[in-house]
Specification:
It is found in: Membrane. The protein is mainly beta. It has a domain at 187-331: Ribonuclease Inhibitor (Leucine-rich repeat, LRR (right-handed beta-alpha superhelix)). Helices cover 7% and strands 22% of the residues. The chain is built from two helices and 22 strands. The protein has helices at residues 13-23, 33-44; strands at residues 70-73, 76-81, 88-89, 103-105, 110-114, 126-128, 133-136, 150-152, 177-179, 186-188, 201-203, 208-210, 225-227, 237-238, 251-253, 258-261, 275-277, 282-286, 299-301, 306-308, 319-321, 337-338. It has a 13-stranded mixed sheet with strand order 1-2-4-6-8-9-11-13-15-17-19-21-22, with no helix packed on it. A hairpin with a 2-residue loop joins strand 1 and strand 2. Residues 1-29 and 330-335 have low confidence and may be disordered.
Length: 339
């Protein structure tokens, strides 16, 4: 008879591994080395990195404890929120290696120099870089930003000789807000802007854009804010019939351009309109009666055009300006009109 020594049942290795992981959580929460390299380069490129509050010599941004202004998931940086800190310096050229980045807020600082490419940041949804001093934007900056919903580059002196809105941006089909005022944009508005069906805010003021409004904007129902004012000596031109078909509009700023022709008669279809600024253009003809039917309209500025009387009767609470239209002056201005 052969005797065998009894043995305890074998425990699966995965149970032992689970015990080890739970016992040493910090060891398994280290920041991805590539992400740390980018953040380390970022702080080294700042003249006043102490404003970030990141620990001197620290090497684990995702913690614990997590560094200020960051959010992480599984050791990857997903958000940087460092607005209004007065940061001075540049962004590192390897910034687009933060491949899990979803939300970036660096607005209202004093960052300068060349913007790094954002090419391939396919998970980036929100990018606020406005009100800094970036002076160059690379040609491939917009490539592969397929998740982008918000892009704000306002008031950066980019490419002083001028640059055009790149076709790469049309791959950002989820784009809802696009603000690039005061960025030295030149050329015509690209057709693809009207094909971005999620777009609700389009602000490209204070640039040097030329040409007509793209026909692709006709019938766009989602855009609420359209600000294309102040385009310099050449300015945008052509008619503005398209805006009467953009029934979602709330704010329309087209002043200080070279638009011509009549103010569209069908504006009463844009029922949510609150502001219509058309001053200092070349509009002619009558002020359409349909504008008087817009119950939410608060500001209507038609000054310095070549419009003709009669002036329809508007509600007394409307802030209305028609000064600088010489054909209107008959000695009896409208009660609520500014001459």
């Amino acid at each position: 008879m052969t005797w065998r020594r009894a043995t305890a049942p074998k425990q699966p290795y995965y149970r032992l591994l689970a015990v080890i992981i739970c016992s040493f959580p910090v060891a398994f929460c280290l920041t991805h080395p590539t992400d740390f390299a980018v953040l380390d380069a970022f702080r080294k490129g700042l003249n006043n990195s102490h404003l970030l509050g990141w620990p001197v010599g620290g090497s684990d941004p995702c913690g614990p404890p997590r560094w200020p202004h960051l959010a992480c998931l599984d050791g990857r940086v997903t958000s940087i929120q460092a607005k209004d800190l007065g940061l001075k310096g540049t962004l590192p050229p390897n910034f687009n290696r933060l491949t899990e980045l979803q939300n970036l807020g660096l607005q209202r600082n004093n960052l300068s120099g060349k913007l790094p490419t954002f090419r391939g940041l396919s998970k980036l949804q929100f990018a606020y870089l406005d009100k800094n001093q970036f002076d160059t934007i690379p040609a491939d900056f917009f490539q592969g930003l397929t998740s982008l919903q918000t892009l704000s580059l306002d008031l950066n002196p980019l490419n002083s000789s001028g640059w055009t809105i790149p076709q790469d941006l049309k791959s950002s089909a989820n784009l809802s807000l696009l603000r690039m005022s005061g960025c030295n944009l030149v050329g015509e508005l690209p057709y693809f802007l009207g094909t971005l069906q999620n777009l609700t805010w389009l602000q490209l003021s204070h640039n040097r854009l030329t040409g007509a409004l793209p026909v692709s904007l006709r019938g766009h129902k989602r855009i609420e804010v359209l600000k294309l004012n102040d385009q310099g000596s050449a300015g945008l031109n052509g008619t503005v019939d398209i805006i009467a078909s953009m029934v979602g509009l709330k704010q329309v700023w087209l002043h200080l351009n070279r638009f011509r022709g009549a103010i569209p008669a069908g504006m009463d279809a844009v029922t949510g309109l609150t502001e219509l600024l058309l001053y200092r253009n070349n509009f002619t003809g009558l002020v359409p009666v349909g504008l008087t039917k817009l119950e939410k309209l608060e500001i209507l500025d038609l000054s310095f055009n070549d419009l003709s009387p009669p002036l329809p009767k508007f509600k007394p609470t409307l802030v209305l300006s028609i000064r600088g239209n010489p054909k209107f002056w008959d000695g009896s201005p409208a009660e609520n009109a500014s001459w």
